[in-house]
Design a protein that fits this description.
The complex is a heterotrimer of chains A (491), B (209) and C (259). Chain B has 209 residues and is mainly alpha-helical. Helices cover 33% and strands 7% of the residues of chain B. With 259 residues, chain C is mostly helical. A two-stranded antiparallel ribbon of chain C has the order 1-2. The radius of gyration of chain C is 39 Å and the shape is elongated. The chains are: A mainly alpha (491), B mainly alpha (209), C mainly alpha (259).
């Protein structure tokens, strides 16, 4: 029935890949402990990271805030925030979501859950030791790789276990069509340890000298965004959107185009963080070109998602999963197009070294990735704990606080950054002018930090209620609004 | 099962392409760069750093200076860095071979520091500034690094090291002085060593207009 | 594409579930799910392929024009070094103001300070100094001679007396001395024309025999000379009587065998 030639991967099978309910229940049960462990850790680090970020943000406009102690200085709090949200929250959430998606899509019960549980423990240990190390003064000051050398091997062991698990799961999957989310997850879980190992070796253990470090640093950091977070986020969106509305993804061929063009172009983008910097011209130009080429995978995925959703947008009214996921997916398109434009040197002139870049980073990691993770968690957690979300009102608060917070943050930093950049460029304007332009927008950003922290605390409370099965017991899912028809209630 | 080798291969090769271009190639072409002999001084370009300045790099890393300060001078017309006095020429790979890590930076919450040693060669200015930046620049948003300093009672004569001209809320009371710790001295030595104003073959001084 | 209908209600087998979850709850949240996601097969839109190839074309052009010939020593993306040609960096001689400032900072600020104001009573100022910009008896040749051989003994600068010793700087090259002098003559409010390397060479050749530092008296005895204007005919070949150049003989009494 299935041929095994190369062409068969382009000529998809028509075998329906349904799971019977009891099979789903079995699979979900097997993923329960590892996934909830990762989710719980992730939410913990989300709250910690949000607090660290909030204090850092206010220190930028009020430098005398908490300025007496070494471990609270901005230069340590800021990387502690970054690492807590990237490795503590985002990566752990991504791994949790990835595990559940992989198990469902491979249609086998989770194998070797001990491997994953060990990985989760190592992960949390590595992040904790790393963050304490940064606050103690052992930060490497290499962006996205600040954890001191005694923390990184712990994380690497965790990553390695997860990679091994991924290969095993994929190897022993039930035969049949390989769905696009599986490609993205498989790729992400393999790419990341290679990235992490290379960066650690060439920047920390056997460092190369000079500005070449900048090249490796930003090859690494940008690839964490593009080859780790983006694939996991897209894998989740590719699953949740068709799953909730009950339609197939618009085009398998667009999925292929989107995946392989992402794989080929994204990893060449790194040098766009260093335009004008001390690098051979061709390296920077190659990254500029690759950044523009990113238009292809981004628009491809946008078409795929949009055409799938077309005619079903009213589901956004009632489905939390879909609302968070589609917010994230649309933000993916927006932030990627923004990123491509930021790589054009004549525009880069006005935004390099400014808050605009920080706005862009948060739009991507929060507006895209974090929102998609929230959406996935709203879907997955009820199935793992056997309890429905106790309060639709709290979910609604979570969504609106998160959406408002990120829009406030990104909006203020984007505009403030451009004004700052204009002052940098103006030969007559002084440095003081750039600071004066930036400051009011930084204050708005600081306010948005409170809004986001509130959203995260609400989510943490909801998660705790789910784990402990407290709160109001309900029949049927927690929805934002009454669904239109009985058939539509598929969340 | 037939899909696994195909996807694995594709995932590996696409990744390998950028690994070769942005990691392996810079390692080979830039990673073993040597300083050049300097005819004028008989030394090397970039000049060797004192041991204290090398220790200062660690202090720079430990306290996260790179998150507000860049160290890159870009060319016109991409930027007006040179016209605004950040340096006489573009900084290039060779300028960073004595740094571990290379503190290129990606933010200018504070000014670029590529040539701060040219603009501010006086150690006492740096100590005053690190201790309480607002007393040197009243609109500064730089945090105070006074935890790198010790307030102590003057024993007989003031120490040679004592920071002169301090003012502001944490200035020493009469009979007291503020003395830099070894970390502060190292950090300032590093800052004063930051000079990229010598020409290099790959980045000469700009021609007369 | 048509909507997927939810899968039919299946009787579950309790012993197949491996957890102790509430069966009704599990049943509920899982039962109401749609089928697992699957692919549709719409074709890739033609306009997307077209856009793709347009971007590829643009990328090729961009790389060709902004890659500095893919050389590791070209850091300026605007330098187009085509395969087989082009030096690493092709620019004119460096700006004397930039070079001069660097050399001044390296060699001269110790005494004359970054502000050019010197130190009262010890080191004379350069800002507004008649020695630097030319005034009274001072000529460009005197300034060059000071750099080459040094200066000693009491001197009058801006109405003040200084009595110190300036070391010779003849180990610097002609371009370097010219750059330093050009810099100090245009900085701190000074506005005097640049000194050229050729002029420095000329003076160096004339004074080749002299090793002692000058005194103000000696210099005053030498008629002032200015750097020839750029469009003037080249000066008489070096070596012959320089135009109004200092005749070495008045310095002869002080000339002594190299100390």
């Amino acid at each position: 029935m299935k041929s095994h030639s190369l062409l068969s991967s382009l000529n998809p099978s028509t075998e329906p890949d349904t799971l019977a309910s009891h099979e789903r229940a079995e699979i979900d049960a097997s993923t329960r402990f590892p996934v909830l462990l990762f989710f719980g850790s992730a939410i913990f680090w989300l709250v910690v990271g949000s607090v660290l970020g909030l204090i850092s943000a206010w220190k930028m406009t009020h430098p005398s805030l908490l300025d007496g102690a070494a471990w609270l200085t901005f230069g340590r709090l800021r990387p502690a925030h970054l690492n807590a949200v990237i490795y503590g929250w985002a990566s752990a959430a991504g791994i949790g979501v990835g595990i559940w998606l992989m198990a469902r899509l491979c249609r086998v019960v989770l194998l070797h859950s001990k491997l994953l549980i060990t990985a989760a423990v190592f992960w949390n240990l590595g992040v904790l030791v790393g963050i304490l190390g940064i606050l103690a003064g052992d930060s490497r000051s290499i962006e996205w790789l600040e954890f001191p050398g005694y923390a990184t091997p712990i994380l690497f062991v965790a990553y390695a276990f997860i990679s091994i698990w991924t290969i095993i799961m994929f190897r022993y999957r039930r035969p049949g069509h390989v769905y696009v989310s599986q490609w993205y997850l498989f790729a992400a879980f393999l790419w990341f340890p290679w990235l992490y190992a290379t960066a650690n070796i060439l920047l920390i253990w056997q460092p190369i000298q000079g500005s070449a470090q900048g090249a490796v640093n930003w090859w690494f950091a940008h690839n964490v965004l593009g080859l780790w977070f983006t694939p996991i986020g897209l894998a989740s969106a590719y699953y949740m959107i068709p799953k909730v509305i009950g339609r197939p993804i618009h085009s398998y061929y667009l999925s292929i185009l989107g995946f392989w063009s992402l794989a080929l172009f994204y990893s060449w983008n790194g040098m766009h963080h260093l335009i004008g910097g001390p690098f051979p011209a061709w390296m920077v130009s190659a990254s500029v070109v690759a950044s523009i080429m990113m238009f292809i995978p981004v628009i491809t995925v946008a078409i795929n998602h949009h055409m799938t959703m077309r005619g079903h947008f009213e589901a956004l009214k009632w489905s939390p999963t879909l609302r968070f996921t589609v917010f994230g997916a649309m933000t993916y398109t927006l932030v990627s197009l923004q990123g491509s434009s930021m790589a054009i040197p004549s525009w880069n002139t006005f935004i390099h070294f400014t808050d605009h870049t920080i706005g862009h980073a948060h739009l991507g990691l929060y507006g895209f990735f974090t929102m998609i993770m929230f959406g996935a968690m709203y879907y997955i957690i009820p199935r793992l704990v056997g309890w429905e979300w106790p309060s639709a009102t709290m979910i609604r608060w979570h969504f609106w606080l998160a959406a408002t917070g990120i829009l406030l943050m990104v909006g203020s930093l984007t505009i403030g950054g451009i004004l700052q950049g204009l002052a940098f460029y103006d030969p007559i304007a002084t440095f003081r002018t750039s600071l004066e332009y930036a400051t009011p927008f930084r204050i708005v950003r600081g306010i948005s930090g409170f809004v986001l922290l509130a959203a995260h605390v609400i989510f943490a409370i909801l998660f705790t209620q789910m784990i402990l099965k407290i709160g109001q017991k309900r029949e049927g899912p927690a929805l934002f609004a009454k669904a239109e028809t009985k058939e539509a209630v598929t969340v | 099962m037939n899909k696994l080798p195909l996807i694995f291969l594709g995932v590996f090769l696409t990744f390998a392409s950028s690994w070769i271009g942005l990691v392996a190639y810079p390692y080979l072409s830039l990673g073993k760069m040597q300083p050049l002999p300097d005819e004028e001084t008989g030394g090397y370009l970039p000049p060797a750093q004192s041991g204290l300045a090398v220790a200062g790099q660690k202090a720079y890393a430990a306290n996260g200076c790179v998150y507000c300060h860049s160290q890159q001078v870009r060319l016109a017309p991409l930027s007006t860095d040179i016209a605004k006095g950040l340096g006489p020429r573009q900084t290039v790979a060779r300028d960073y071979i004595r740094e571990q890590p290379a503190f290129l930076g990606t933010m200018r919450t504070g000014p670029d520091l590529s040539n701060i040693g040219v603009r501010q060669p006086d150690a006492n200015w740096h100590h005053k500034h690190l201790y309480e930046p607002k007393t040197v620049t009243d609109w500064s948003v730089m945090p105070s690094f006074r935890y790198l300093y010790k307030m102590q009672k003057i024993q007989g004569q003031p120490s040679d090291d004592a920071v002169k001209g301090l003012s502001g809320p944490h200035a020493p009371a009469p009979g007291y002085e503020v003395v830099p710790t070894e970390e502060a001295k190292a950090l300032v030595a590093y800052l004063i060593s930051l000079k990229r104003n010598f020409p290099l073959p790959e980045s000469p001084e700009p021609p007369a207009k | 594409m048509s909507n997927q209908t939810p899968p039919p209600d299946e009787g579950f087998k309790e012993n197949e579930l491996s957890s102790d979850m509430n069966v009704a709850q599990v049943h509920g949240s899982i039962m109401r799910e749609q089928a697992e996601p699957r692919d549709g097969y719409e074709p890739v839109p033609l306009w997307l392929i077209t856009v793709f190839f347009c971007i590829v074309f643009w990328s090729g052009l961009y790389l060709a024009f902004n890659s500095g010939g893919f050389r590791a020593d070209v850091f300026d993306p605007k330098l187009v070094a085509w395969a087989g040609g082009g030096a690493a960096v092709e620019t004119g001689p460096p700006d004397p103001m930039v070079v001069g400032k660097r050399l001044f900072t390296q060699n001269c600020v110790v005494c004359h300070q970054t502000t050019g104001l010197g130190v009262a009573g010890q080191f004379p100022p350069l800002a507004g100094s008649e020695w630097v910009v030319g005034g009274d008896w001072h000529g460009d040749n005197h300034l060059v001679k000071i750099l080459l051989q040094g200066l000693q003994g009491p001197i009058q600068v801006k109405g003040n007396t200084y009595n110190n010793a300036m070391p010779p700087w003849k180990q610097l090259k002609d371009e370097q001395i010219a750059a330093i002098l050009t810099y100090i003559r245009a900085e701190w409010g000074n506005a005097a024309p640049p000194i050229t390397p050729e002029f420095v060479k000329q003076i160096r050749d004339e004074t080749a025999q002299r090793s002692d530092p000058w005194t103000q008296q000696e210099l005053q005895a030498i008629p002032a000379a200015k750097v020839p204007a750029a469009d003037a005919a080249p000066a008489a070949p070096a070596g012959t009587a320089p135009p109004a150049g200092g005749a070495p003989s008045p310095a002869a009494p002080a000339a002594a065998p190299a100390a």
